[in-house]
Amino acid sequence: MAATETAPTRTLPAVPQIVAREVRREPRGWTSWITTTDHKRIGILYLVTTFAFFLIGGVEALMMRLQLGVPNNTLLEPQVYNELFTMHGTTMIFLFVVPIWAGFANYFVPLMIGARDMAFPRLNALSYWLLLAGGVVFYATMFFNPPEAGWTMYPPLSSSAYLPNAGVDGWIFLIHLTGLSSIIGSINLYATIANMRAPGMGWGRLPLFVWAVLVYAILLILALPVVAGAVTMLLTDRHFGTHFYDATNGGSPLLWQHLFWFFGHPEVYIMILPGFGAISEVLPVFARKPIFGYKAVAAATVVIAFLGLLVWAHHMFSTPSPTVVLVFFMMSSFLIAVPTGVKIFNWIATLWRGTIEYRTALWFACAFIFQFLIGGISGIFLAIFPIDWQLTDTYYVVAHFHYVLVGGAVFTIFAALYYWFPKMSGRMLSEGLGKTSCLLMFIGFNVTFLVQHSMGLEGMPRRIYEYPDIHHLAILNLISTIGSFILALGVLVTVINVLRSLTRGVHAGPDPWKANTLEWFTSSPPPPNNFDVIPRVRSVEPMKDIRREIDRRTGRSTPPPEGVPESLVRA
Amino acid sequence: MPRALRAPRRHKTLLFAVLAAVAVGLMASPAALAGLISPEHGGSPNADRISTLYNVVLVLAAIIFVGVEGALIYSMIKFRTRRGAVAAQIRGNTRLEVGWTVGAALILVVLAGVTFALLPGIRTPDNSDAGGLRAANGGILYAAGPAKRLPPNGKALNICVNGQQYVWRYTYGARCKDSPLNSIFGYTTMIAPTGTTVTLEIVAQDVAHSWWIPKLGGKFDAVPGYTNYTWFKIPRGMEGHIFRGQCAELCGRNHANMVAFVKAVSPSDFERFVAAKKKQIQAADAAAAIGRKKLDRDPRANP
User: What local confidence, expressed as pLDDT, does residue B298 receive?
Assistant: First the structure.
């Protein structure tokens, strides 16, 4: 009590708040990539690694499409075909789409919220190396027996009685390692976003990509422990004599399906929500207009995530389940359509009455909206369980989830790449190559997957290595195979574009798009400490405020000449 | 000035004309393009009803598709940057946003209503036709099953479907927990009487499979430890028709070759098939009994 009376009277000596003991030189050489804890370098490691896995998974897809190009083909053995679709699905989900968002989030979340690094830089490095370890363990199975029970790994097929070789075990360890990587990474992202925002950046001023990453992190934290437990039970079933999934000893194969999809459906939103966030950044910048309904878009992200935890059994409509269960999961799946629809309407309304600049990132964003809507609509058919009885486990489902994950997630990843590449590399990507790539991918994607709806309706189940020459299956499959190679060509053009632009691209400068968020406040690429000065955030578009303030102080208050887009004035 | 005023109206008329044409085209085309844009049907009322439900949803979906993609493409073209254009700095419109949220929800209420209206006809089996398999037929028809769904009059022909790597086994008229050896059974091709409600009890004995004959209705997984139920009723006049299907749940390397056929026969032919099979079973039993007696008498076989 007495101390409080004396304390305020003492004055502290005037010293600087931060003392730099030494300015360390930026580490160079290949070892610096292994020891780095810089969120930007880790982000680059994530992006390069996951993109490499994307290319491997793509080659696997092309091999499958080659096998299915003609009826009764004998190019691949049934075992090899089963291994390919298992590797393809697992790679694309666990080693590409989910972790590439961790890569973008690593690089851009601290920059967008005005932080100098992630909350736990060393844990951040651990997340990346665990991911790489998961990928290595999984691909090591190529040298003995890759798993062949599909990425869903349903027992009893995945039990030791039917697949005694170690491929399934490799898959289980992949889930463990990448799961651990994602959980650690998510906690890190959550802590960073919750604690390290620039002064003035309240929750209502958080960029929409950061909102999406926050929800992505929460979903990963909720869903991954469930699948980690489920695969551990599969591991003990396989090797240590338990019978969790063994019906002959009182276990239940449906238990696996419930646990797997309790994780598996949130996983879909884990893959697509950051993409939604990236689109919500790209559209306003190139439409030169604020996002339409910021609060609605952010709230829709949260609502989708919540509902996404309540719909898992719509993957199980054809299993022996009571009607009341089917009805519940049909209705909960319907509900998700509302916030998703809201997002699509808000994006279109963002374009409405804007002045749209057609840069490559915007091309990909528009292609994404077009395609994702188709995936959403086919999802409504699948949510109606009597219709699902005809469609589930056919190529209709294959078409649906590729519209969501390729037409949706992959196109958003490409939009994000074209949008943020100048910040990461300091150089612009070629617009000509970019637009060629987008056009080829758009045509290739739709040619590949639109016809797959019809294959499913005509009775072609998924995961079959050959099919008879009945109905229109031969011509539809041939079209699909041709489309897949056009899609692959489109991806290749972007790979060339990236490699070429790294050395030959036009220098980007700090803010080539005249964008809205703080990552464009610093130089491209940013220095190790990101920002020398962290500005105070006064709105959801801090860069607009900063540009206006600079104009005011420099007396350049006159607007750019009539008819010339703002972003072109600077160059 | 008058031209500028007329232009939007012409756009609107054109838009309505396109919408109407698409809607009419979609209502007419499922018949012409069955299989390509709507599910297979024509072998059983439940498959037909699923197809009807699909077509209703398809029309609604087509309207949404044209409306939303139209708005997207329109704004992409109309609002591309050009000389003198200034972007409207709109941050939202609460009334509009509430409006389309409620609108989306209403569409889903309509979809749910249509689904619930058609659901009982898909889930619950129809009664057999008057010309179907007669009830008194060697115990083949069951008046009541265990937990499974039965038609309103409680009478249906029961067939147990058993999935195993990589073949389907059908046991006719049996209670499925019984050994198939006491009943008539066959593999791959199921013989089914027309005009008769056939209920299926679907089980698996090794890994999970999925029973699916597209023209006879949806697919139902065969999961070890569980029994799944479905039904079909092939209309009279389709005798001789063979419906093709195949396993729809990954069951191993030869999953693609686990095919299933259902051959429609007239009820009298079905009775003849049953009688012939019974005769074969009796003959085989008699032959086995003789052999058994011989073995019983043989001291080398009974040390």
Answer: 81
